[in-house]
Amino acid sequence: RFRIKTLSQKLHLIGDGVVLVVFSSVMENTRCFANRFSDYKGALLPGQGAETVVPAVIATVDKILKKVPLDSSDCDGGLYDGPAGVAYMLFHVSECALFSEQRDAYLKTAKQIIDVSVRYVDAEQDKNMRAAFLLGGAGIYAVAAMIYKSMGLADFVKPLTKFRNLWEVCAPISFLECGSDELFVGRAGYLCAALVLKQKLALMPSSKIKDQIKSICHAIIESGKQYARRKRKPFPLMYSYYGTEYLGAAHGLSSVLQMLLCYQDVLSASEKDLVWQSVDFLMNQEQNCNWPAELGAMIERENELVHWCHGAPGVAYLFAKAYLINKKPQYLDTCIRSGEMVWQKGLLKKGPGICHGVAGSAYVFLLLYRLTGNSKYIYRAQRFAEFLYTEEFKAGSCSVTSVYSLFEGLSGTVCFLVDLLQPDQSEFPLFSVFV
């Protein structure tokens, strides 16, 4: 079974591209295909409407369901690359009106899958693993509550209660030795899951729940302050994961700050000031429209990371949230520059997924469309969707172990294709900005 450290090491190899870095001196442009598409000239692509995309999505879902395991002995990976992520994908598709004929069948299958995952995490002896968002129980309970509620089942309260009870696990400052604050297993992930539940269930949190959220935010800020002081950083908040000071969305500073911005109503004035100082610090770490994977690193132009997990495609969401809150143009400008980098280097060779694949890159364009209303970004997303079906991509992209999975495989791609049909409502899966 995967444990937190084992899976994080797997992510380190996949997300950071450590294996590829070793050969970077002899392999140029190992990470992305050349973008040979002409840019937007005022018209969207024909043939990418519902009449084409809906059948393609249905066919891909059928392909996924033939691969996804339904045995409780094979539930590792949580929402990231476990069966639970497929359940979320089915829920997401069922929420789109264009799939109303498939809705009931998809939700029924989603429930079957998530029920197995819930039983699996119910039996998990490691309480820290149960509190993990993308790799453990917290995310599975959250998605179960969403699926049950969508089906009209009163039982949605059971997984919701299990999720809420996990706040006690991640409230202590150092509940994880590897780093207690990042998105996949740490406190930022718990806050992210709570945000998704607020959005999808439309429930007003009680004063008790608000206090619990507040305590977690305070723990994140105190943890960041202590680390920054201990390491003598010239900025107020910093974090590490397995000894590495990551900056990107997967394990780093950007998603931690993004979650604090999402809950800034529970922060004191001085705490808000620390968060905004840190946001501006991170903005100043930009190197030619991108961010290094870790603090202090210099980007190698021929081998840079342009992934959601590490680099501009994930960091952009922090600055989108910052812009939505205070409307300062420098934050939107930073997002736009990130989008330009993705257009140049976002046709990734690591598969179709959302963590470090083409769909994850393309979600940045849907984000920018929602921020600006500029149809150029829908066009760019369409081009990336088109590329997924080319022989060049099929022949030149890396094979994916969990081909069905949400973050590495086709389930994330399905979410992107559905959101391309409804760009005004589009959001990177389980990573809410517009709440």
TrEMBL record:
Xref: InterPro entries: 6hp_glycosidase-like_sf (IPR012341), LANC-like (IPR007822), LanC-like_prot_euk (IPR020464)
Keywords associated with the record: Membrane, Metal-binding, Transmembrane, Transmembrane helix, Zinc
UniProt GO cellular component terms: plasma membrane
Pfam families registered for this protein in UniProt: LANC_like
Single GO BP term: carbohydrate metabolic process
UniProt cross-references to CDD domains, sorted A to Z: euk_LANCL (cd04794)
UniProt binding sites for Zn(2+): 309, 355-356
Transmembrane spans: 131-148
GO molecular function: metal ion binding
PANTHER family: LANC-LIKE PROTEIN, LANC-LIKE PROTEIN 3
Family affiliation: Belongs to the LanC-like protein family.
Record's protein name: LanC-like protein 3
